[in-house]
Amino acid sequence: MKSKRLMATLLVVMMMTLAFVGCAPAENTEADAPKENVDTKEVKDEAITLRIYAQYSDDDTKVPYDYAAQELKKAYPNVTLELDIQGQDDGQKLQTYAATGNLPDIFQVGTAQIETFKESKNILVLDDYVKSTGFDKKLHASAENLLWNEDGHAYAFPYAGNELVLIYYNKELFEEHGVKVPETYEELKEAVAKFNAADIVPLSIFAKEKWITTALYDVFATRFDEGGIKKLDKGNGSAKEEAYVKAAEHLHELVKLGLLADGATNMNYDQAASLFYEGKAAMFINGQWEIQASTEKLGDKVDWMFYPVVSENPEAKYAFAGGGAPGGYAVSPYSEHKDLAAEVAAFISEKYCEAKYMYRANPLLAVKVDPSIEPVEKFPPMMEKLAKELPNITSTTAFAWGLTEPKFKVAIEDQSQILLTEGYSPEQFIEELEKTIERLK
Asked: What is the pLDDT of residue 23?
């Protein structure tokens, strides 16, 4: 009897002890930590290695990466980056990683890869991280298109900025012939007339290449609608809209007035550039990458101008042709430390921009650089001017090679080139362009 009572008492004590243990707070151990993702606050003191897949082949990629990695060590001393150098294989190595479940924590992507990885669920949606890291506050207003995808989500932290179409001009020729640098369409017409009278080509263009003829039309389109050719490429407009009709009419009017050199549509880059460098052309159209070459050839004689505005839309000064597409540092949704990886990806992108600004003389960046940071080598005057104006740019469009609808790309390239010949009318241009747009609906 006593033994039965003793057994009962022991059972009660054991049950009470178990109940007490069950109610007590559990100790946080490494084994108890969630394996799918470890919060950055929980691991801030833990030594963590993040694998990063990035370009690292020349000074334009090595210098920014090394700088970003060094700065990361200061801000996140517990984090080590394990660099996996990006293959020059059109994304095949990264695709293999995704297919085999071996994606790096952080990896560089372009627009095509973003679209592919969205479908296969191999890329983390970064919307919340864009806000939590403050990345959206650092982004240039004109670089929204580089961060936010067409579906409204962010998949990579960009570092490269939009590239721009610029109109360069020979300051000496303008001064010698008493021509005002045109700020309006009417002043541009006056400039064309005066230079023609002086036997100087008003605008040199290598119109044998159709991307630049598309860019020239886009310059005029942005004077009426900041969406330019990008809006049509995305199927958000019609070529019959007033903006696109007027752009064609204004450009063609200038062509008839003698804007371009004879045979411009058969002229290559070297021929067109030579006209400008030799003082036989007053203006020249190309991307911002022309700054270095024009500076070497013309020194302080050359500058770039804002596209002349039209009376209907005087506010269009800071709407630019040119552009870019989403891309940058993305994060694997399967990373053990995806919150930390996203935070580090945003940090790396920002520091990448700083390095490109300081050491690579490149101000065309996605995010703003601290004003206290100065480039190691002084920018050429035109680049310095562009750097100062970059925060004011309100919108960009797209280069021909960045258009996403192949049939529209072919149509706008063909039609914009023919529009630069006197025998082709703006009406024909609009009609042919609209046919393509209608077929794509």
From this structure: 35
